[in-house]
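Case study 2.
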Amino acid sequence: MVVGRPGVGKTSCIQTLMKTISAADGGGTVYREARINPKAMSVDQLFGIFSTSTSDWTDGVFSVLLRRATRVTRGLSFTNHFLTLFSDYFSGFCFYSSAANN
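Prediction:
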């Protein structure tokens, strides 16, 4: 988790980490970043909602991206995902997931 006041270098820190992971194995590591502004949508749109009348779950933006980040991607030896939430109240939360193919 990267947390700090505006302008202290959270984004630069995350980008440097992604470049370092890629360079550590000779550039063969693939990384992906998804940035989300949680204040731009409702909580239901962000995380998802359960309908009590139909008993159906509808994924939100974060739920969809989290599922994609934790899914093993075929054809890639290693994939790293960064889900980054930037806003006043999240202050730069970053979720990191890596999955190795067998």
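The mean pLDDT is 76.
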